[in-house]
Specification:
InterPro entries: DUF1203 (IPR009593)
Number of domains: 2
Order of helices and strands: EHEEEEHEEEHEE
Protein name: DUF1203 domain-containing protein
Structural class: alpha+beta
Distance between the termini: 14 Å
Organism: Streptomyces phaeoluteigriseus
Number of helices: 3
Length: 170
């Protein structure tokens, strides 16, 4: 007899290819995108969820994740509609190359949202380990009102990526 148990996987989601195609032309603040060569590297790229390397062509664009999510869902983010700076490759890239949670090497905020894009709370993750992030995600998704979370940088509040809980069978 085989027993299967359900577990939860927390998946980091990069900015979608469709949104990236638009952002590479005009950002969410209506400004034309201006690519540049990153001489130093290290920029947290939201298209492939890794740090940039020296010499890559990237762009700093204004991104409004809740506005875009709400538009797709037919909801209104209201006052929670915010936009902020994100780095992306200037040209299409293959996206993330693994399942590891990115950018967990520093303090981060895990911000909880309802399906209609309203903030339901947040948590500071001070322990920069994947296990600490997994605990924060589990705590967030234990609340049935939480539909998704954003991982954000503490220093400036910048959006890093969205996380969704996905049930898996093991």
């Amino acid at each position: 007899m085989t027993t299967t148990t359900a577990t939860t996987a927390y998946t980091a989601r990069p900015i979608t290819p469709g949104a990236l195609a638009e952002l590479r032309v005009t950002d969410d603040a209506g400004r034309p995108t201006t690519p540049f060569t990153d001489e130093e590297g290290g920029a947290p790229l939201r298209c492939c969820l890794r740090r940039g390397t020296p010499g890559e062509r990237i762009a700093l664009v204004s991104y409004a994740p809740l506005r875009r999510r709400s538009a797709a869902a037919g909801t209104d983010p209201g006052a929670y509609d915010e936009q902020g700076p994100v780095f992306v490759h200037a040209d299409p890239c293959p996206g993330p190359d693994g399942g590891a949670l990115p950018f967990t090497n520093a303090h981060r905020t895990v911000r909880r949202y309802s399906a209609d894009g309203r903030i339901l709370g947040g948590r500071l993750v001070e322990d920069p380990t994947p296990e600490a992030f997994t605990r924060a995600f589990r705590e967030a998704f234990d609340d049935p009102a939480v539909a998704f979370v954003h991982v954000r940088a503490v220093e400036y509040g910048c959006y890093l990526y969205e996380v969704a809980a996905e049930a898996t069978r093991g």
